[in-house]
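A student in our group prepared the protein record below, which I am reviewing. Here is the record exactly as it was handed to me.
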Amino acid sequence: MKVLIVGSSGRLGSECKNVLGQAHELITPSKKKLNIISWDGVIECLQEVSPDVVLNCAGFTNIKACETNDFAVRKINVEGPRNLAQCSARFECVLIHISCGHVFDGQKLVPQPYFEDDTANPLSAYGKSKVESEMAVRGNAPDYIIIRSGWLYGIKGNNFLKSTLKQALREKPKPIRVPDDQYGSPTWSHRLALQIKELMEKNAKGTYHMTAEGHCSRFEYAKYVLDKLDIKATLEPCSIKDLKGPKTPANCLFENRLAKKQGFNVMVDWKDDLDSFLDEFGKALIKEVKTKKT
């Protein structure tokens, strides 16, 4: 298949580029080449390359900044996906769109997970924009896959794992405050890319929850990473209510129900993938963090 990846240089897009490139023809335009908020630009690009699949990994993902940048958020997170959906329909492409757990309010009691058909009720401007992006895709693209994931980590981009390392490796580290009442499933971006490949090649359709199996609190996640890398730091448990910033769901647990039902699930336990990731990239991450400090 010929796959057009939007946002191919980001955390997930770069992994999809590596994984999908082994078996498929890829088109990975730069932001300058393909501006998704431009209808004419999207039309021109799809007409030129004639992809079978459009994979949208782009988005405005800074949750705090979303609260004060409504215009940009709507352009990138809502109008962009709408343009991709309408143009994908016009050129008969499959559209794969990445969403997240911020579409839910997180009020379910842990360990109850969220399912694909649960009602969305976002708490933040970012979450609202992702709900609207999903609606734009469903309302305009006949052939689509919406993938909700969360707690992503990887080599590229910023994430909670890297943030924890940065704080722990300061010259004079302070206690790191980490919520012990927010739960999710740390998910390796490489594994999610493999899952996207599976769904794409099996001609899946609809909305899928895709996170690692098992779950933990943010506090347990941070402790696991530091223990695995033998980094001495003081973790201080707190509540998500104690942290400044936009509201985020306390329960970010997903059940990959539809993929399991259809036999498409390739996700594994979060500890297994995190062990593999840290074994392969742990030293490089530590070096990266220390280098950026100097």
In short: The first helix runs from residue 11 to 20. Residues 2-293 form a domain with the Rossmann fold fold (CATH 3.40.50.720). The chain is about 45% helix and 15% strand. The chain has one domain: 2-293.
